[in-house]
Amino acid sequence: MSAQSDINKKVFVPRGETMLVAVEVRRRRRTAGRRILQLSTRGGEYATYLCLSVTNRTPPQLLITKVKQFAGSAPFVTRSQWGVDQLRQVNGIDPNKDCPDFDLVFDNTVDQWLCSSSAEKCIFILILYQAYKTYSGGPTGPPVCLPAGVGKSCVPARGTEFINCQPKLTGEACTMNLVIYRVKAFFTRLKKRVLAKRPAPRSKGHFSGGIMSNVVQRVTVSVGERGQRLTRAEDQTLELMHKAQQFADTAHKVRTPLQWYGPHLRVRVQVVRSTSKGQGTGGTVHI
């Protein structure tokens, strides 16, 4: 179910109204005479829909309603509602080309809106103009009869003025133009959905940063492995030095000299034979 059907079913049908059109809008701000298209500071917390509806009772009344849907909540909330008799001006901003922004001037407030696309804005103004002609007697409004003795008996009522609107929005071929704008709005929404699902491209700086991070990671791993190898070599060297020291200590404790003669170990032992004069002769024992 689309957002428009959901809003009509949950908001307007229970109140005895028929919704004609609904567009998603955002606030627009003016600064120093220039148009600045800017989101509200709370734009990410709710969605705002501007709806045009007509009552089912007689005589029918044309209404403009602002409906909001907050993030994380399914129900729609009605914030403001105006009758078209309170609408004084519809400003299309640019009469020469399609643009997504427009102004609504009421008796007590001015709303500056930005639609999601120029086609959505054109659909809203086109249907508003045709509905205003149908239910309010045209842009000049139906005549209002005054009591006798108060000036003229009948004077034209204050109507709604449509300014800076393209002729195709207020012209005769409204049905064909409405079909064209609906098709444009459909393809615009479809394009946005496709782009939203597509992953964002990486910038050049992000790509270079990724390469540098990979190089740094590889160098860090290489340095760590080399440090581990050096640590193992130092441990082996200390172990060999310890064994050599033990061997030297053991060799000092042995009083008999050791000599290596080729592949066989020979130990020369001095054998002293006692003689009558205190002198002896030596011999050699081979092992």
Automatic annotation (TrEMBL):
Pfam families: Sec3-PIP2_bind
SMART domains reported for this sequence: Sec3-PIP2_bind (SM01313)
Domain Exocyst complex component Sec3 PIP2-binding N-terminal: from-to ranges: 43-135
SUPFAM superfamilies: SNARE fusion complex (SSF58038)
InterPro entries per UniProt: Sec3-PIP2_bind (IPR028258)
Name of protein: Syntaxin binding protein 6 (amisyn), like
Organism whose genome encodes this protein: Gadus morhua
Phylogenetic placement of the source organism: Eukaryota, Metazoa, Chordata, Craniata, Vertebrata
